[in-house]
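Handoff note, outgoing to incoming analyst
You'll be picking up this chain. Sequence as last confirmed:
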Amino acid sequence: EHFQWLTDEQSRQLTDEQRQAVGQEIADVLLYLLQLSDRLGIDPLQAAREKLAINAEKYPADKARGSSRKYTEL
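Most recent structure output, in case you need it:
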């Protein structure tokens, strides 16, 4: 919600107060994800590595860089 009405440029020039508020939101999301992964027995770092590998196959850098096309269109 902190970025909802900001332009791309504005979102890169946050005040110290805005950055602190966004940091607190990031912390909330991170803590929630860690609790969820703990309850489900999922290693979040391993899940991230696996997802990066899947994305690398679906979106080869030489074809996907600079493109917003879906992987089925590459």
